[in-house]
Write a structure and sequence with these properties.
The complex is a heterodimer of chains A (252) and B (214). By secondary structure, chain A is an alpha+beta fold. Chain A has eight helices and seven strands, in the order ββαβββββααααααα. Chain B has a single domain, classed as 3 helical TM bundles of succinate and fumarate reductases. Classes of the chains: A alpha+beta (252), B mainly alpha (214). Bound molecules: protoporphyrin IX containing FE, iron/sulfur cluster and FE2/S2 (inorganic) cluster (FES).
Chain lengths: 252, 214
C-alpha cells in the first residue's frame, strides 16, 4: 500500500505545532497502525530526520498507552468497530489514502511531543479515590463476600476501561466523565467498594474538575469511540452516586 | 441546569395547552387568561388558597428565577469548558453528536432573544403588535394575522424544540435516569415526543389564525 500521511509535528510542549506531509510506500495491510508508524520512523531515521514521537506499550489493546486521532476519530476505528490504535490494521484503509494523524487534544492532556501527550491527570483522578482500602494479610476466602451476578457483571464491564483517554479526546467539552464514571461504577457495584463509595465519588469528581477537564453535556461522543465499550449509562451511575453523596456526611 | 430546564419544559407544555383554548372561542381564551391572573369573578386560580392575583406573581417569580439560574449555569458551564478545551483538531469527525446538541449554546442565546420579544409582545407592552390586554385573544389574532409573525414564531419554535429535544434527554441523564441502553432509547423517544407535541401544539393555533379558521 502507498499512503499520504499528514502528521502533527510539535517539537516540545511549548513549541508551535503543524501538520507535516509524508509519503509512505511499502505498507502491508497486515501491519497494525503503529507498525505503519514504525516503518515511517525507520525511513525518517535513515534520512536523518527526527522520527515521529508516539506513545505505545503493550500493542495488544490492554495498556491504554497508544492513542491518536486518525482522520478526526479517536483511535480511528471504522464504523461499528471498537479498537485501540495498536489493534487497528492497515487493511481498514484504502491504498493511496490520505490519513490525518493528530494527538489527543484537551486542556488537561498537554502535548509533550508530536503525537505523545501527558495523561498524568488520569493517574491523579485515580489517586483521589479509584481504589479500595483493605487490610493486607492472609487472603479472605473467595466466596466470603458474595457479589450479586448483575452488579458483578456491571463492575467487570466498567473495569475494562484501560485509561486510554479517547473519551476525553473525542469529547467536544474535553470532559473525562466517561473515564471517571467507569472507575466509579466499577467500585460502586462491588461489596468491597461500599465503605468509601460516597467519599470516593466526591473526591474523584473534585479531582476531575481540578485537573481541568470540561463539563459533561451528555453528547455521547465518548462512548462512541471508547475501545472497551464503556457505556454512557456509567455517567448516570456516577451522577446518581454524586447526588446521593450530597445527603451523606462522607467526604468533603 | 437540569432542574431549571425541566421546570421550563413543564411550563411550556402547560402554556401550549392553555393556548389551545382559543379553539374553544375567544371568551374561553380570555376567561382562562384572566383566571390565571386572578381577575375573574371567582378569584381565579388557586383562590382561596392564595389571595386573588397572587398566583401569577409567584409563578412569574419561579419562571424568571429559572431562566436566570439556567442562563447563569449555562454561562458558567460554557466559560469553564472553553477554558479547558484543547486546541482545535485539524480534522474532526463526530460520531454521536446530534444537531440539537451542537446548537445548545447559540440556540439558547437566540431563544433568550426571542423570549424577550415574545414577552414584550404579550406581557410587558401588551398590544405592541396590535390588540389590547383586556381581551387577550385580540393580541393573538392581530399578531398572527401577519404572515411574517407566524413565520418568525415557526422558526423560533424549531429552535426551542431542538433545545428541548437535547435538553430533556440531557436533564434526565444528568439526574441519573439513564440506567441502561433501553432507558437511553426511552428517554430519547420521550424527548422526541415532547418536542413534536410542543411544536405541533404551539404552531397549530397561529396557523389557524393566519388561515382564518379562528
Ligand atoms: C432563555 C434562554 C436560554 C438559554 C440561553 C439556554 C441555554 C442553555 C445551555 C447553554 C444549555 C447547556 C447546553 C449543553 O448541553 O451544552 C442548556 C441546557 C438545557 N436547557 Fe436551556 N437555554 C435557554 C432556554 C431554555 C428553555 C426555554 C428551556 C425549556 C423549555 C430550556 C431547557 C433546557 C434543558 C432541559 C437543558 C439541559 C440541562 C442539562 O443538561 O442537564 N432552556 N440551555
Ligand atoms: S472510558 Fe473508554 S475511552 Fe475512556 S479511558 Fe476508559 S477505555 Fe479509554
Ligand atoms: S499499546 Fe497498549 S493499548 Fe495500544
Amino acid at each position: 500500500m502507498k499512503l499520504k500521511l499528514r502528521i502533527w509535528r510539535q517539537a516540545g510542549p511549548e513549541a508551535a505545532g503543524r501538520m507535516v506531509e509524508y509519503d509512505l510506500d511499502g505498507v502491508s495491510e497486515d501491519m497494525s497502525f503503529l507498525e505503519m508508524l514504525d516503518l515511517l520512523n525507520e525511513n525518517l531515521t535513515n534520512r536523518n530526520e527526527e522520527p515521529v514521537a508516539f506513545d505505545h506499550d503493550c500493542r495488544e489493546g490492554i495498556c491504554g498507552m497508544c492513542g491518536v486521532v486518525i482522520n478526526g476519530v479517536a483511535h480511528g476505528a471504522p464504523e461499528g468497530v471498537r479498537t485501540t490504535t495498536c489493534q487497528l490494521h492497515m487493511r481498514s484503509f484504502a491504498d493511496g489514502a490520505t490519513i490525518d494523524i493528530e494527538p489527543w487534544r484537551a486542556g488537561a492532556f498537554p502535548v509533550l511531543k508530536d503525537l505523545a501527550v501527558d495523561r498524568g491527570a488520569f493517574d491523579r483522578i485515580i489517586q483521589a479515590g479509584g481504589f479500595i482500602s483493605s487490610n493486607t494479610g492472609s487472603a479472605p476466602d473467595a466466596h466470603s463476600t458474595p457479589a450479586p451476578k448483575r452488579e458483578a457483571d456491571l463492575a467487570f464491564d466498567n473495569a475494562t476501561c484501560i485509561g486510554c483517554g479517547a473519551c476525553v479526546a473525542a469529547c467536544p467539552n474535553s470532559s473525562a466523565m466517561l473515564f471517571t464514571a467507569a472507575k466509579i461504577t466499577h467500585l460502586a457495584m462491588l461489596p468491597q467498594g461500599q465503605p468509601e463509595r460516597y467519599a470516593r465519588v466526591k473526591s474523584m469528581v473534585a479531582a476531575h474538575d481540578e485537573e481541568g477537564f470540561g463539563n459533561c453535556t451528555n453528547i455521547g461522543e465518548c462512548a462512541a469511540v471508547c475501545p472497551k465499550g464503556i457505556p454512557l449509562e456509567s455517567i448516570s451511575q456516577l451522577n446518581r452516586d454524586l447526588i446521593g453523596s450530597l445527603f451523606k456526611a462522607d467526604g468533603k | 441546569m437540569a432542574v431549571t430546564g425541566l421546570i421550563m419544559i413543564a411550563f411550556l407544555l402547560m402554556h401550549m395547552y392553555g393556548n389551545l383554548k382559543l379553539f374553544l372561542g375567544p371568551e374561553a381564551f380570555d376567561h382562562y387568561a384572566h383566571w390565571l391572573k386572578g381577575a375573574t369573578e371567582d378569584g381565579g386560580i388557586l383562590y382561596p388558597v392564595l389571595p386573588a392575583g397572587w398566583f401569577i406573581w409567584i409563578f412569574r417569580f419561579v419562571l424568571v428565577l429559572s431562566v436566570i439560574l439556567h442562563i447563569w449555569s449555562a454561562a458558567s458551564l460554557v466559560l469553564a469548558t472553553r477554558a479547558r478545551q484543547g486546541d482545535k483538531y485539524v480534522t474532526r469527525k463526530t460520531k454521536a453528536q446530534t444537531y440539537s446538541a451542537r446548537t445548545m449554546r447559540w440556540g439558547g442565546v437566540i431563544i433568550a432573544v426571542f423570549l424577550v420579544f415574545h414577552l414584550i409582545q404579550f406581557t410587558i407592552i401588551p398590544g405592541s403588535f396590535g390588540g389590547n390586554a383586556d381581551e387577550p385573544h385580540t393580541m393573538v389574532v392581530a399578531g398572527f394575522e401577519q404572515w411574517w409573525m407566524v413565520a418568525l414564531y415557526a422558526v423560533a419554535m424549531v429552535l426551542v424544540v431542538m433545545h428541548v429535544r437535547h435538553g430533556f434527554w440531557s436533564a434526565f441523564t444528568t439526574l441519573g435516569g439513564n440506567t441502561s441502553s433501553r432507558a437511553a432509547s426511552v428517554l430519547n423517544g420521550l424527548a422526541w415526543i415532547v418536542a413534536v407535541v410542543l411544536y405541533v401544539g404551539f404552531m397549530i393555533m397561529p396557523l389557524a389564525v393566519l388561515f382564518g379558521v379562528i
